[in-house]
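Reopening closed ticket. The problem is back. First fold of the pair:
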Amino acid sequence: MECRLGCAACCIVISISSSIPGMPNGKPAGVRCIQLSDQNTCKLFGSSERPAVCSSLQPSVDMCGLSNIEAFHILSELEQATTPASIK
């Protein structure tokens, strides 16, 4: 599966604990990444500044579903399931 251009679910829904240019403390879940363009494309794609966690994400039907809306729902459920109770 290839990433759906303009989806950006993984750039909004999930938390990222590593530093991102412009977001030195990472990104909380549900917060739009500062490196996401108005067209919902990554400004750091292909750059060495892109966090390893972002580069390692590989689109799949299990993670992205069959639509952008489905991707938001699936990733939201995964984020909730993997967030420690002390943070919720």
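Second fold of the pair, where the issue appears:
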Amino acid sequence: MIGNLQCVVLDCPAPLELAQFYQSLLGGTVNQPDPRWSLDDDWATLHTGSGLVLAFQRVDDYRPPQWPDPARPQQFHLDIGVEDLDRAQRQVLALGATLLDAGDGTRGWRVYADPVGHPFCLVRDLTGPADAVT
């Protein structure tokens, strides 16, 4: 082993605003003091209750992914387990997400974009309730 994953970093035009979007979706603490990162206008973090850390880095000429266009690929995505897809969809849309693919109604997941275009999926969580969507 060479190292441990510390966080997932997302490029974006406005780090604090995107951190707050994901905080509303996942819970946790925005810009929690942490000696691993220096927080400023170009960098924000979200420490989630599960221990996962997301970081948000300002990119001046940010170009969002265009799902599913391979010329501007998604670069990464998050799968977020939810108890009720319909309720979770209403909540993420109210936060500023965009529905990209609702599927045909028979599968257990849907694709969205966060406010700056990063794709993420809401996935029916069959293991139990998810605190993030209650």
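Update: turned out to be a display glitch only; the data is intact. Residues 65 and 72 are 5 Å apart (CA to CA). Residues 8-58 form a domain with the 2,3-Dihydroxybiphenyl 1,2-Dioxygenase; domain 1 fold (CATH 3.10.180.10). Please close again.
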